[in-house]
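Model: You mentioned two targets. I'll fold them one after the other.
Researcher: Yes, keep them separate.
Model: Target one:
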Amino acid sequence: MGMAIAMIDGDPLSRVLHVDLSRRRFWIVDRRDLFEKRLGGAGVAINLLDEECPKGVDPFNPENPVVLAVGPLSGVFPIASKTVAMFKSPHTGNFGESHAGGRSAVSIRMAGYGTIVVKGASPTPIYLVIESNKVHFRDASALWGMTSFTAGRAIREKEPGPGIRTIMRIGRAGERLVRYACVITETYRHFGRLGLGAIFGSKKLKAIMVTGKRSLKVNDIVQYRKVYGEIHESLVSSPAMRKYHDLGTAMNVSALNELGALPTRNLEKARFESADRITGERFAERHLGRRIACAHCPVSCIHLAALREPYETERYFYKTRMVCYDYEPIYSLGAMIGVSSTEGLLKLFDEAEALGLDAISAGVTLAWATEAMQKGLVSDRETAGLKLQWGDHETYLKALRHITDQPNDFYQALAKGVEHASSVYGGADFALAFGGNEMPGYHTGPSAYAGYMTGARHSHLNGAGYGLDQKFQALGGKPTADAIAEALLSEESWRQVLSSLVTCYFGREIYTVDTVLKALKLVGYTFTPDDLLRLGREVLKAKYAFKTREGFDFRKLRIPRRILETATPLGRISESLILETIQSYGTKLGS
């Protein structure tokens, strides 16, 4: 396994840019050794995280690195449009990984880097401007306190110039160290989960702007055009990709509700009686303004709704804002807290975006807080006078701002997520976090939950357990622990290959083993199918080696009682099945 003669002249992928915010220094190191072995993206990032992150370091210590990595297909083939971020998570106290699209990957690649590593902390607010051979350290004092929208606009005005540009920035939630604050790129894409925004805030880093002006020229242009054309045609003609273009991930609302797998009111139920009012179809009919795409993607899965609101002081004068909507925020800030108004949902999405909050964790946290108030664990004294009630989006808007500003102990606890808040106020049985990370919107069965608990990122994007549950349901059989564990491990291992390339998971049916091999050959890599599968397993094991180094233990995972009480499409979940699956996964991973 390794790199053959490079097919792209002067390819700068193996250049790693190191930035020290404390000393305001930068330097570039060639790490061809890593890129030959691990391709890029997740494969390279986990190695650099292990090298750069001191064992046991506090996530808010300046020595906790931010690693941003792209891969050999970035800027070369369609939908190789994601950037991988790795860091030690302030939310879980362990491994953190998040992916974002937009223009980030192509900008980094065209700036001439495969990876950017940021360490240290600035004593005063700062933002970075990264070019091909230069890093500018800019004063961000005037930007501190701004929303993510305003900060992005201000940087664009201050930094004009040619090139493919990305601006990765935080809102006030990151500045205030909310443990699940996100980093926004190009307004509508995010490094969403596990608190990268809080790491930026701890470093007084308001934003990173990267401008790329290079071009990549392959040697075998004829074969390149052929393979590129095949991939492009598959993307635009595939029914699987068509659904992402038409309704986007919001199409999942009606499907999951019909299955009885849509978490509702903190998973008290798995069907939302008002789901038909917040479906992808309803959003498209009432609000869809336009579709946009990440750089180098023909699919356009990003759906923007037009939110039209009157000015308070002027009659017949309206302001219209474009707000991005997807399934996960519809679940977390909709069904999970009982909100059934599309306008109310769009206001919540817009507020979360402006503040820079992970919408999934924020919604699940509000759901826990609402039930805790209903059960008398907290009162309006803790909530600063807010009456948290299912469906009341106006009160939830105020609660999001309180979580960001943290005016009292209760909101300080909510800013650390439901795992922490329930340890202080009670209600752990209905605190829906797995490995410390709030649940995504799939109550499909045991495979989903086993995946949340065992997956390296404690996310539905690890092993696609929700899809596995649906396969078991279609087959009409009861899954065994070993069968679930083997399927999760196999899928998660392959996804390490995709996230090392780095391609969008939406195109996983397009980027098959054969397609990946053909694409890699054109950028200078000679691999076999076995090499790829071995690489995927190695990267996954490297992630778990880091997790274990930082104190992770399969035996210490907490199973919230609520997931055992609310029936799934496969019936009630057996606690013993989950425990056996976790044990089996750990055994198979180590073998």
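Model: Target two:
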Amino acid sequence: MLRAWLHRLASSFRRQRIDAELDEEIHTHLELLAEDFERQGMTPEDARRAAYRSFGGVEQVRERHREARGIPWLDSIQRDVRLAARTLAKERGFTLTAVLTLTIGIGANAAMVSVVDAVLLRPLPYPEEEEVVTLALQRSGMRVPARFSEAGYRFFREENRSFQELGVYASTQRPLIGSGEPMQASVGLMSNSAFAVLSMSPVLGRLPSDDEDLPAGPTVAVLSHDLWSRRFGSDPEVLGRTIELNDTTREVIGVMPPQFGFPSQGIDVWVPTQLDPSSTDVRLSSYHLVARLRSDATPESASSEAGRLIQRLPEVGHAQGLLSSVLSGEASVITLKEDVVGESRSLLLVVMGAVSLVLLIALANLSTLFIVRGEERAPQQAVRATLGASRTRLAQHALSEALLLAIAGGVGGLLVAAAGTRGLVGLAPPSVPRLDGVNINRLVLGYTLAVSLAAGVVFALLPAWRARSTRRLLPDLSRVGRNATAGPGRLRLRGALVSTEVALAVMLVIGSGLMVRSYSKLRAVDPGFDSENVITFGLILPATRYENEDAAEFYLRLVERLRALPRVESAGVTTGLPVTPVQANYRMDIEDFPDGSDVFVVRWVTPGYFEAMGIPIASGRTMLTEDVEEFRLFIGASLAEQYWSTSSAVGKRMGPGGIWADIVGVVGDERIRGLDVPVEGGAYVPIGVPFSPSVLSVSVVVRTSDAVADLLPPLRREVGLLDPELPLINVRSMEEVIANSYAVSRTTFAALLLVVAATVALLLGGIGIYGVIAYAVSRRTSEIGIRMALGATAAQVWSRVVGAELLPVAIGIGLGLAAAALGSRVMASLLFETSPLDPATLFSGPLAFLLVATAAAAVPAARALRIDPVSALRSE
């Protein structure tokens, strides 16, 4: 049976070759017969009609003969595909334009779909993940939520009625020693109840027991799958081995599966929190809460209950002032997935909308090209219909061409998407989570296939719609060999597509213009320090070997050694780098205002910090070494202006809980939490004074006289000479710190992608307008010749021919402006000090596209003005 089928298949290919040869013979006889009718006195048009009628049955006879053969549908498909391939090969310009346009549109969308799928659509790996939520305390007037105290956590755990289970977690950096060179490990601190909330078991070993999660319990650790593979070679005998984490020896008891990444995907090792069940500590700690909802609870009802519990926090020892000044009294309960995705959702959806507009522009462009091409081929379609080709045959041939183009564009789009996903992941800001899961998966493949097939069907329907009736094609016979303009219906459809394409492009141009203005304003913000030639790195001193006093001495010695290095101008240490959202707030009393106190951002720094950061001294003096021995204070200029606007702040006193310190210096304001956050009043305390929390985790800043990269080896050497087990964390320049800050990185990412999308839209729009106008001019050659022969000027020809074709462009610009205004709220959350209705952008965006459209029209217009009237009339 297979052999017989293959024989019929081979025969069908031979018959196709014979059919092609027969077609050539038929057309030759048609020409000869038409010439005979002309000799008999017929006009050329009547002669062609008579020839078509004489041979009208040939195609019908051939069709009936083909249907009698084996596998008729396969014969038909093969014949149409071969004919379509030959046609597209001859029309290389059209084919290349169509495939490239589809490749760009489909590729950009497929790449973005892969990112959106990984970040927004793909579920978290935890069982019944929709029940897992996070609970946060909202701060007054701040974007960053407050964390729970140990007593507050116990209170919520015992009093809530919305959660099945509730646990605490935190993340930090700790030096890790064992099975290789010392490294800085990302550590997740998790209570056993937090592990229970997530309901995931290790792939090797076990989770910590209840005894191991108590104070003074056995010290254990659970490894991430990545650390197990990278540092221990996936050794199954790793259980029972020990590692040193922050100078504490811990036994490895388990390895988590590769998809487990809580609280973030980069965690290397998890350890128990070992909180005291009877703790009454009410200090806001570094712990977050994760919970699993009861079956009858929702995030909204849990938020309401948590708000009521916040009002009862004074029952466990929290000061009433905590509720009035630090906390807003509200709680946020959201699903874990929402918490992980965060504000990146709006960013990704805006970018996804932008690349979707690129795809729509590409499809509108191609639709216009197909319509124009269909008008040029209308006489050919009329000939085929007159020869007996059915409507199905004509539509099938058009579908074959469109599907071949769509498949080629889809394949090219996948190649672009594969490269585009890597580019998107590389450009995406650190705030976008779950990028490690971005790949070309089945969803992306299915999306690409669906878009390609849909595009093929749509493009096939455009010329096929014209061919839906043989009677409709007959008038096109009169256009064979003659120039003519398209009918009113075709002009309206073509104009509508051009207007749509222009409107979408204008929306993209305006959106990208808004992001560029927002980016320029954000980068123009003065951070309050000089970031040029400044390198920074983090240090975490082990609590087992360093007390606060030892840490202060270590930092002072390190700063002195760093200052002595060649090309180092100054160096200092701080507990909080600027333009980072997480900062320590402390309540301070002010001697001149005994009736009240306030909460400020307070950072502990060493002498040399102001010089290393290039922070100017507004009044008073800079920090000296002797300031460590006595409690002296430095404040920012805005804080001084807030309380001592009519006098000098130098010499005034302020401090925590009646511990007074003299203000000896006022310095310029830094942008503490980010470039997009208003200037806040801050205070600086010398590291080592009695009033000092834990200063074991710090950032070192070093100002150099030239390139910062060349200084890294000596920095490592100097730290190693003081403590060889201390790795350097997050080594980077301050310019990188600014560039990677949340607002800047998000704005940069959105601006870059929108500018790329707008550029592609301008390019596609320009090509589409050029093609339409060039075609319109070519079809009106005789009209232009007649007008110029009758004395029309170049300006009149321009306004009559090209001006009419630019009318859809003007309509599209108006529609684009209206759509951009209506969709302005979508962009508002991504902008900085820029109105979504910014007049300059709303004017310059359409102007840019109008210039592109005019430039696209210039070439065919110039060609039209050079037409020789005599030649134009002869062509008629």
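Researcher: Noted. Anything on target two?
Model: Residues 543-724 form one domain.
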